[in-house]
Amino acid sequence: MNGIATYQDNTVTTQSKGRLIVMLYDGAIKFMRLAVMELETNNHEKKGHYINKAQDIINELNAILDTDAGGEIAANLRKLYCFMSNRLSQANVKRDPQMIRDVIKLMEELNQGWKAIAG
């Protein structure tokens, strides 16, 4: 197991910043899809777990924004991240898979842009 952990750590630490952001987006999207799947099978505990994981990633993306260097783009991303996190909170309480799908769609669109930038 130690070899796997070392490989995973090296995979993350050797990536460019753009590629790391793509990895974060991919992770959040994965967790939101799992949340939808658990919601549709009425597993509300796991649904909440996956929504929380997606929100943790979104909150991290928000926290690492460089608003000084990023200017208006960073400010707009911050608004989107706050919207996504709030929307996921509402989806969790209302048990609404469509609200989660809406955030997935938004994040997938942003992720395409990051993938283009990261190469």
Description of the molecule:
This protein is mostly helical and 119 residues long. The protein has one domain (17-118): Up-down Bundle (Four Helix Bundle (Hemerythrin (Met), subunit A)), CATH 1.20.120.340. Helix content is 89%, strand content 0%. It is built from 5 helices and no strands. Helix 3 packs antiparallel against helix 4. It is globular and about 45 Å long. It starts with a helix and ends with a helix.
**Annotation field: number of helices:** 5
Order of H and E elements: HHHHH
Determine the strand fraction and express it as a percent band. under 5%
Low-confidence stretches: 10-14
Distance between the termini: 31 Å
Question: What order do the helices and strands come in, and which of them pair?
Answer:
Layout lengths: L1 H12 L3 H24 L3 H20 L3 H28 L2 H22 L1
Helix pairs in contact: 2-3, 2-5, 3-4, 4-5
In short:
With 119 residues, this protein is mainly α. Helix 2 packs antiparallel against helix 5, helix 3 packs antiparallel against helix 4 and helix 4 runs antiparallel to helix 5.
Primary descriptors:
119 residues; Four Helix Bundle (Hemerythrin (Met), subunit A); mainly alpha
